User: What shape does this take?
Amino acid sequence: MTEANRKIVEFIRDEWVVPLNNNSKFAVDHNIDEKTVRRIRDDETYQIALLTIMRICHGKNLTLASFFKMVGI
Assistant: This one.
């Protein structure tokens, strides 16, 4: 389970958070707290919540199924 969590967090970080390079904008665009974005970006032990994944998917106009396919889970 920890491995799947790490893949999810690293995918979000590498594909969407880092390229945008604006934690505040990502947080507002995806209806999550900026602290959560910082944790995705910097915390190597962060356990992402399903609600956070759902909000990010909604902001990206993705279904959970398509997101998990993209991540490879």
Notes: The radius of gyration is 11 Å.
